[in-house]
Amino acid sequence: MTLFEECKEALKQDFNLVNNEKEVTKLLQTFPLKGNYMVWGKIEYKDYDCMEELLSDFSDLAKIHFYVLADNADIPIFKSNLKLIIDNIYDVMALSSKVYIFDENVVIEPLFPSYTLRVGRKK
Known about the structure:
The chain is of the alpha+beta class. Helices cover about 30% and strands about 30% of the residues.
């Protein structure tokens, strides 16, 4: 079983492949990116080591679908609800050394190789 298949299995309660990958990529580009890296100095952010704290701070978004984009062309973009993603964050983080989890207003980046998540909101 591949890491992607393990992640898909972990998120099976709410896992959806994305058909419109170009539109989703454009959505990610509405955040301050330079090359393939988030420019965190241009966005309000907070680092989380505790997933319960993250879910508490973003409880209003727990059931909202977030896209997951891994820096690996072999892994398709998919979406799931934020709570399920965070509950299974280690499976999601295992997909690639660079993963973005995002919607229209919030972007989350695991800070590889740690288990810290950096969460930013558009200003």
